[in-house]
Design goal:
The complex is a heterodimer. In chain A, the strands form three sheets. In chain A, strands 6, 7, 8 and 9 form a four-stranded antiparallel β-sheet that branches. Chain A starts with a helix and ends with a helix. In chain A, a hairpin with a 5-residue loop joins strand 7 and strand 8. The longest helix of chain A has 72 residues. Chain A is rod-shaped. By secondary structure, chain A is α+β, with helices and mostly antiparallel strands. Chain A is 56% helix and 21% strand. Chain A has eight helices and ten strands. The relative contact order of chain A is 0.07. Chain B is an alpha+beta fold. Helix content of chain B is 64%, strand content 11%. Chain B is built from 19 helices and ten strands. In chain B, strands 6, 7, 8 and 9 form a four-stranded antiparallel β-sheet that branches. Chain B has a three-stranded antiparallel β-sheet with strand order 3-2-5. A two-stranded antiparallel sheet of chain B has the order 1-4. In chain B, strand 2 and strand 3 form a beta hairpin. In chain B, helix 1 packs antiparallel against helix 6. The longest helix of chain B has 70 residues. Chain B is elongated, with a radius of gyration of 60 Å. Classes of the chains: A alpha+beta, B alpha+beta. At the A-B interface, strand 6, strand 9, helix 6, helix 7 and strand 10 of A face strand 3, strand 7, helix 13, helix 14 and helix 17 of B.
Chain lengths: 296, 584
């Protein structure tokens, strides 16, 4: 019984001592051991065994996240180089590169977030002042310099963050770019007028194309008609030529007879119903009439 | 009587100092339990001060404690044997005190409920210097203990029920301080019970406030002595902390069961074996941490003392016991989705341009218009250990990267391209770009696809956009009509032209044929004529004359008869001549 009690007491003491002195370093974190607030040891990598320190209140374990941390800056309104107001919200990905410096300057990711946010916001203003709206949004992809701006902001922030805070900036990007709500109405009106412009253009283009098609049709129609006329006339002419040739050929054989027939035919046709004919009895049809009177 | 006054004054001053000190400690540590303790001390100042004032007022009278003090605390029922203070008519004498105590009661009620609410729902608070503060609180607890003994002793000696009650109260204070100190020291060792300790002490302050209110109200309502003392939390706590209470409870239970519990062999044996059984159970529980299971959609990462030491799929697995090996589980099979451009992602109606889809975020398109895209990124965890250890919040990182990619994409394209022709391209471009970014950062996220729900213009001007589309339709309509005209006019004119040509052909052919006919006839007649030209000429002539003279009117005259007045003769129409000729 007594041995059991002694054993239990020893076990409890050992467990307590272990609890106060053992610690582990997990994957994805740095550990800084501070003795009464003074950093005495930095462990950068996790290991598959426990480590030891002086008990709780003397040596303290400070865990610092080693992983990439993303945070968003509050969207801020600023002016571009061409006086256009714009609201930009950034996202920043960073990680602790120098745990001791980080621990001494900022200590927590929350502090780091605030510090980086201030830094990014001020650099954002500086960098964006050198660009125009055309560099931010443009249908010509070459004119858009958003990536260049991101690179410049990242470079400037990294320059400060590493030596001062032990922070490595993995990347800074524009999360969202938009106009302030004050100018939203103006933008809406502009968009509306643009739409109207576009609509009118479409209608006019429609009318234009329609007129073009109709005019072309009309031209083609008259061309077709003229062509037909030409063709018809040619055909008629050829017909005339051929018939004349035939006539000439035939009539040329006996010209006198033709003239005789023609004159008679002409007479026959000329003496229509309503004409009045004055004839002398000397004329041919009546000649015998007279001679009979004289010769009885 | 002087010593009573002195005791009350001391209690007031000590409590005032304590309150100030505790508020200062709260500012230094930020612990909720310290704040609650500070308010607790504040409630004590009020009661001690009122007690002191009561003594001052009651000084001319012989013996009795002031009624308001009794009103504040109530007369404890415990020391029944003590000589009574003989206090009388509290309402007559301490009206102002009762009112003040009512006001304090209301204040404490408000503060304590606020603190309870804060302890239940507030955000987790990081406590600074927990061990130092905790040690100070342990000192407070010791102080409270001494104060309690002092007050009780003085009260006993001088027969002041108020002081004895205050002593009990100090005992409750001691318990509270002890609780606060222990919770703070535990926090220093990584065990956070700050919230629960604060809740318990808040409940104590609440009970004090209710006590003050109830007792003050009772004194106001029942104006006669003896005053009623319905509610005392401090006494209750003081009693509960007494080891004798537990023994008494056990013996009364035993008595209720007829003494069978203490006498039964089973019970005694069970009591003797209990520690061993507990030990075995604890050991079994500890050993059970060697086993772990992984559910079908999950993947487990085993860490040894924090270092990643292998992954495991679904099933039952072995590991070293807690706290050496631990397991992090990640759901790798489940497809998750991240909405972009729409913060709410709650929609039950159709996605129309004339209605907002939820809480939307505008983007700017290359042609300087607001665009409201609504995309869904489908992704899952591709690499569980990367997902766990590469980034603190990979999903928030994904959200940022997706927004950035989309902003860059939209900034270089005109609205109509985005809304119409580019929809499929946005998805593929975003998916591949995002995967590239995620791989660069080594987040272990696998983007499966990006789906586009809608891209629409701002709702207030969607009418203008629809108008434009209507104009586009009108344009097409006009062009179609022109084409219809063309399609009709051209064949018609072609038909007309071929009719003209064909009729010309017919005419020409007719002419030629007629000419041939004429020629053939002429040749034949000429041949016939050539046989006897004279006769045939005469016959032809005569035939022709006959035919020719049939139709027209004729005037035949004889040259020998002179020239007739053909046209001049009035009344002598040509008919006459004709008749004349006929008659001849």
């Amino acid at each position: 019984m007594r041995i059991g009690r002694i054993f239990a007491a020893a076990a409890l003491t050992a467990a307590g001592a272990l609890y106060l002195t053992a610690y582990t370093v997990r994957e994805g974190e740095y550990v800084i051991i501070t003795r009464f607030g003074k950093p005495v040891r930095i462990i950068e990598d996790a290991a598959p065994y426990p480590r030891f320190k002086l008990p709780g209140f003397i040596d303290r374990v400070n865990r610092i996240d080693k992983r990439v941390i993303a945070f968003r800056t509050i969207p801020i309104q600023l002016l571009l180089g061409d006086k256009n107001p714009i609201i930009v919200g950034c996202c920043v990905a960073w990680r602790v590169a120098d745990p001791l410096r980080f621990f001494q300057s900022l200590a927590t990711p929350e502090n780091a977030g605030q510090k980086l946010s201030d830094m990014v916001s001020s650099q954002l203003g500086n960098v964006l002042g050198g660009y125009t709206l055309d560099n931010v949004i443009n249908t010509d992809a070459k004119a858009v310099k958003l990536r260049e701006m991101e690179r410049r902001i990242t470079a400037r922030c990294a320059e400060k963050a590493r030596p001062e805070y032990g922070i490595e900036i993995v990347g800074i990007g524009f999360r969202r770019v938009t106009y302030p709500s004050i100018v939203a109405d103006a933008v809406y009106n502009r968009m509306r007028s643009e739409r109207e412009k576009e609509a009118r253009k479409y209608r006019a283009e429609g009318a234009e194309q329609a007129a073009r098609i109709e005019a072309q049709t009309d031209r083609e129609v008259s061309e077709i008609a003229a062509q037909a006329y030409r063709e018809a006339e040619t055909i008629m002419g050829e017909g005339d030529r051929e018939s004349m040739r035939i006539h000439t050929e035939a009539y040329g054989r006996n010209r006198d007879f033709f003239e005789f027939l023609k004159s008679i035919e002409t007479c026959e046709k000329a003496l229509a119903e309503k004409s009045t004919l004055i004839l002398s009895t000397d004329s041919e049809p009546f000649r015998y009439l007279r001679s009979r009177k004289q010769t009885p | 009587m002087e010593i009573k006054k002195q005791a009350a004054l001391t209690a007031t001053i000590v409590n005032g100092l304590l309150t100030g000190l505790k508020f200062a400690l709260y500012c230094l540590s930020g612990s909720l339990v310290v704040l609650v303790e500070a308010w607790h001390s504040f409630s004590d100042i009020a009661t001690s001060a009122l007690l002191f004032l009561a003594f001052l007022r009651g000084a001319p009278r012989t013996g009795p404690d002031a009624a308001p003090a009794i009103a504040m605390r109530g007369i404890p029922p415990l020391p029944r044997s003590l000589p009574s203070d003989g206090d009388t008519h509290p309402s007559r004498r301490g009206g102002a005190e009762v009112l003040v105590s009512l006001a304090i009661g209301v204040l404490l009620l408000c503060v304590s409920t606020g603190l309870i609410y804060r302890a239940l729902s507030g955000p987790p608070i990081a406590i600074r210097r927990p061990i130092q503060t905790g040690l100070i609180f342990l000192l407070f607890a010791i102080g409270s203990s001494f104060l309690s003994r002092f007050e009780t002793r003085v009260g006993m000696k001088h027969g002041s029920i108020g002081l004895i009650a205050d002593g009990h109260h100090s005992k409750a204070d001691m318990v509270a301080s002890l609780l606060a100190g222990v919770s703070l020291i535990l926090y220093g060792f990584g065990i956070d019970i700050d919230r629960w300790a604060a809740l318990a002490i808040s409940a104590l302050v609440l009970s004090l406030s209710v006590e003050v209110l109830v007792n003050a109200a009772l004194i106001l309502l029942r104006k006669e002595s003896p005053p009623v003392f319905a509610f005392r939390s401090s006494t209750f706590i003081a009693r509960l902390c007494d080891p004798e209470t537990v023994a008494a409870a056990f013996s009364s239970l035993d008595k209720a069961l007829g003494g069978r519990v203490s006498r039964s062999v089973m019970c005694r044996r069970a009591l003797r074996q209990a520690p061993r059984a507990l030990l075995v159970l604890a050991l079994a529980a500890w050993l059970s941490t060697c086993l772990y299971t992984v559910a079908p959609p999950e993947r487990a990462i085993r860490t040894r003392c924090g270092k990643a030491a292998g992954e495991a799929g679904p099933g039952l697995h072995l590991k070293r016991p807690w706290p050496f090996d631990r397991v992090i589980r990640q759901d790798v099979a489940g497809v998750r989705r991240l909405p972009i451009g729409n913060l709410s992602d709650a929609h039950s109606s159709a996605l129309l341009w004339t209605k907002t889809h939820g809480t939307e975020e505008p983007f700017l398109s290359g042609d300087n218009t607001y665009v409201f895209p609504y995309l869904l990124v489908h992704y899952r965890i591709g690499d569980a250990s990367r997902f766990s250890f590469a980034a603190r919040d990979p999903e928030s990182l994904l959200d940022d990267l997706a927004h950035r990619r989309l902003t860059l994409y939209i900034a270089t394209r005109p609205f109509y391209q985005l809304a119409a022709s580019d929809r499929a391209r946005i998805c593929t471009a975003l998916a591949s770009g995002l995967q590239e970014d995620l791989d660069t950062l080594g987040t272990g996220i696998e983007v499966l696809e990006v789906n586009i729900r809608d891209i629409h213009p701002p709702v207030p001007i969607s009418g203008a956009f629809e108008e434009t589309i209507a104009a586009l339709q009108t344009k097409q309509q006009l062009i179609n009509e022109a084409h219809a005209y063309r399609n009709q006019a051209l064949p018609e004119s072609r038909g007309q032209s071929s009719r003209t040509v064909e009729s010309a052909r017919a005419d020409a052919a007719g002419k030629i044929e007629r000419a041939r006919g004429d020629a053939a006839r002429f040749v034949m007649r000429a041949t016939a004529h050539a046989r006897d030209p004279e006769v045939s000429s005469a016959r032809i002539y005569m035939d022709a004359m006959q035919a020719a003279l049939l139709r027209p009117r004729k005037i035949v005259f004889d040259p020998g008869a002179g020239c007739p007045s053909v046209f001049m003769g009035p009344g002598a129409g040509p008919g006459d001549w004709f008749r004349e000729a006929d008659s001849q």
